[in-house]
Structures are given as C-alpha cells and as structure tokens.
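chain below, 109 aa
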Amino acid sequence: MNGATYADLLKNHLHPAIKSKRCGHLSTGVLPQHDNARPHSACSTVATIQDLFFDCLPNLLHSPDLTPSDFHVFGPLKEAMGSKYFRSNEEVQQAVHEWLRCQPKEFFF
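prediction:
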C-alpha cells in the first residue's frame, strides 16, 4: 500500500462508512492514530486528512505511559465490554472504571 492508495481508502471508504454508520462523529471529530509508516506520513495522506477535517493523534509507540505489560488489560476489557451498548462517553467511562475496580490486584501485576 502506498500513500495514494491509503488516501483513497480514507476518502472513499472510511469517510463514507463513518458518515453512514456514525454520522455524529464527523461533526465532533475523527481522531485516527497513525504510526510513522510511509503510507500514513505521505503528503497525499496528510492532505487528505486535512481535507476531511480529521485530526491525527500523535504516535504513542514510545509513550512512557504505556508499557508492554499494560497491553494484557485490553483483551479482557474488550471482551467484557463487547456485548454492551453505550449511549454516551460517560457511560463508557463508568463501565470501564467499574470493570477495573472489580479486577483482583493480581490482575495488574
């Protein structure tokens, strides 16, 4: 995949899919998170992201906040939250906080 192909994917596939499935998200902002792969940092991709009014999150690959040991949390969390429907971000936050509180101490070590 090159930058032009990825830009086309964003413009002609992702944007229409968001528009039809999650229309409110286009007005509140779409935040894709890209690494520094060539298709993600190509001029055509950057221009397309600006044209679509998307804001990219910075690359967190080397973030001191996330260590590889933290990633074991995401699988069980995804499984626990996967069958639930949330009406707001606050409901999601509350459910995640409750799930985290219910985990035994050993889960985090």
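The CA atoms of residues 55 and 107 lie 34 Å apart. The chain has a mean pLDDT of 80.
thats it, cya
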